[in-house]
Each structure stands twice: as structure tokens, then as C-alpha cells.
Amino acid sequence: MRNGPDRLRALNVPQRVQVELNANGLPTVIREAADKVRHIEGIVEIWHIDDEWWREPVARKCYEVVLKGGARVVLFVDLVTLEWFVQKP
Amino acid sequence: MAKKSHLTSDSAACCWIPQFALRAETARRPELVSHPVALIAPDDTRRVWQLSSLARRAGVKPGMTVSQAIGVCPALKLCEPDPVHYDGEFSRLLAALSQVSPVIEPAELGRGFVGTDGLEGIFGTPEKIVEEIKCGVRNAECGIEAALRIGWGKGKFVSWVAATRARPGQAIIVCPGEEGKFLASQPISVLPLDLDTHRRLRQLGLKTLGALAALPEEAVVSQFGATGRRLWRLAAGRVSEPVVGRVAPEPIVAALAFFSPVAGRELPEMALDRLIERALKDPRRIGWRVQAVRACAGLEQGASWLAAVTLKEPTADRDRIAAPLKTQLERSPPAGAVERLVVEFTAFVQGTEELQLFARDATSAARAARRSALQGAAREIKLRVKRSFLYHIIEVQPWSRLPERRYALIDYEP
Questions:
Q1: In chain B, % of residues over pLDDT 90
Q2: B408: nearest CB among A9, A49, A74
Q3: Do B390 and B283 lie in a common domain?
Q4: How far is A3 from chain B (nearest CA, A)?
């Protein structure tokens, strides 16, 4: 994602995070930094995105989750790099 | 902008068409001639600006509110200003003058100086040079040539004073060596004075330039400071400011890179507007209006797209510059998704700094006050937080399944 002066600045850019999974492979904890850990209370929805196969393929498995405290975020794993990201719904 | 020394001239012809905007308006709407007419001010739509002689005779004065003016003269015809038209007409006039001499210096709407050094070798005497200038102005076909007054003399001040003394359609020539004699009998109001200095000079009993020049220079300086010295020297014919022509600016370029390749017309069109706005704000563009513009797009996989346009009427108005580019974008769209868009102003036509204020569409005058308030607020934010954090949110690909592709921020400069 390219941002900077004289450019369009994308909104809602995904932030890279560490995620802990349970035995079923579902996310349970989001670790944004060493001291910023957020626990997942429930998973609302799961879906796949496969797009832009003609350019740089985008393949994501997305989870809309409810965090402890009630906030909702979208977690996704990039199926090309296997990295996890968090994003606003 | 570097100025070349050869684009100056000591001898000058001042070409002056008083009430240029009103004359340009009545030239295209001849039916107005028989009515008292008032042009509304471009920067304050509540006040009248330029007035026809019939309106003046009826008691209307410049700066009156519209309601006052109508109260004084119920038959008054009010005209919305069309600054772009006036700007275009003046530009044509300057272009016509540049056919006579390469040294042209616009001063304000309706007034410009022509440098005439060396023209005697081509046209002959000053009278013949002036005839050539008149002929050039007639060729511009603005319909207001009859109001042109020309003054010829050494330096801009002498030529300007001569132009103010000339009758419409005529010229006054001040021969070399006669500047002092000519200036001596002129009223002090021809000096570039503020109201207070003018009042003080009148209170001192000084009514003509000759009376001012008869005083010791130091005495005037002790009363009026540095301004006094300049006024005394102008009055005495001791200074002669040359006409300074200008070199056309280098191309002005504004570019924008999209964070992901963009298909479709909507976003490139919006980006064109933003880039043109940005290029228009380039300080090098001040005093110039755009005549030729091109837009280039870098496309996915290394291809490109190009639209080049020469504007029929040079302008500094964003929408007028963008319109033909958008038409080309519609008629022959890029062959792929756009990664980078560049707008380049490649040719310019002279205008004055004042014209940049005028060169908007007429309706923008009504928005000027709001824009001014917005600019004030933006300046304050910038002062407080050291940089502007004002952005527009624009739709990029609102249909995209990838949330980060849907919306973006673009710098907002009111």
C-alpha cells in the first residue's frame, strides 16, 4: 500500500498483528504489541475473499470477531503470506 | 522566474481602456448601451462596481450597495460580472499588443504598457508606433477599441499620465526632453497616492506636479519619508521606470500516484480537477493564464495515455481547463487501469496578478466570502498543529471487496 504526500491516502488500511489460535484453528487472542493484547469473545462471521487474480492475487480468510468489551473488528489471514491483519469492519 | 534584461524598454506606450469590464460587457450586449448599467462587484455581490455614464448621471456611485443603487436609479440594469470573459478579452488585447512589441507589461485589467525601444527602426516616429499599436488593438476585435487611450513617453509614469490626458481613441506623445514641462501642469492625483497622502498634499496647497517638484526634495522627504522621495522624483520627471516584459514560465507539472491502479472515469476525472487546482496554485503561474495543457497517465503494465489540449481561450479557471481533458478522457479512455496521473501546463498567455482573482467563473464571486472564511480556519489549524491535516474523503472503489480500496483521503486546500 503506497501512501505519502501527493498521493491518495487509503483509509482503513489493515494493520499487521499476531494471533493466537485454538485447537480448531480459530483466533482467540490478538496481539498488536507486547503490551497490547485483546481477547476474542466470539466469532460473528467467517468468509473468504479471492480477488485480483489477474494482477497480484488477493486471498484472504476473514473473521468478524467481537472482542472482550464489545468492540467488533475484522481479522484476516493473508493466504499468500500467512500473515494476520486487523481492520475495521 | 528569471527575467532577461533584454525584455525591458525605457520608452513606453501606455494603453488604457477605463472601465474595461463594463465596456467588455456592453460590447457583447449592445442592448445595454441605452440604459443606465451597473456591473456588480466580482468579490462582493452586494455592491455595484463599474457604472455606465447614464448610471453615474442618475447619481449611482461605485461601491454603493445594490439596494442603494436601485433606490437612486430604479431603471438601473444590474449585470452579474463575468470575470472569465473580461479576462479573456484583455488577454486578446495583450496578445494583439505583443504582435507590435515583445515587451508587454500588463498593469491591471484594461491597462498595459508596451515597450517601444527599437521600434522606431521598424515603424518610424512615435506617432507611427502609436498608429501601429492602435492597428494591433483593432485587430484584437474586442469591440472596445474606440475607448482606447494611449500615452507615449519615457518610462511608465510619463506614459501613464499621458494616457490619462488623452481622449478616447486618441494618443498623447511626450517627446524626449519635454517630460518635466508636461508633468508640471498635471494634477497631483495622477501620482500613485493613498488617500491620506493626497489629502495632506492638498492641505499644503500642492495641486500640480510642478508645485510639488518646485519644493526641495529633502523638504518633501522630511514630511512624507521614503514615499515622499519617490513622489517628488516622479513629479520632477527624475525617475523613469522601464517597461519590463516577462519570460513565459517553464511548464508547470502536478502529479498524483494512485495507491492501486484505477479503472473507470470517475476517479481520474476527480484527480484531474485536483491536479489542475494544484498546478494553478504554483507561484510561477501568477500573472499567466494557461493556454496549453496536457494530461498523461501511466497505466498498468507500462502503457500510457495522453491528452493534449490547446485552449481556445486561455484561462486560469479550473473547470475550463479540465473540460476538454475530460472530454478526451470520455472519447478515448485509457486502455488500462491508471497508476499515475500527471497534468502539465505547457503554454501560457500573459495576464495580470489581478486577473488571477478574476479568472474564475462568475458564480464563484458569490462563494468568495465563504472560501475566505474557510481559508482563515485552515490557516489557523496549520498554525496550531504546524501542518494542515485537512483532507477530503473521496470514494475510490466503493464496490471493492477489500475495505482499504473503498475510500481515500486527498489533501484539502480551500
A1: 27
A2: A9
A3: no
A4: 7
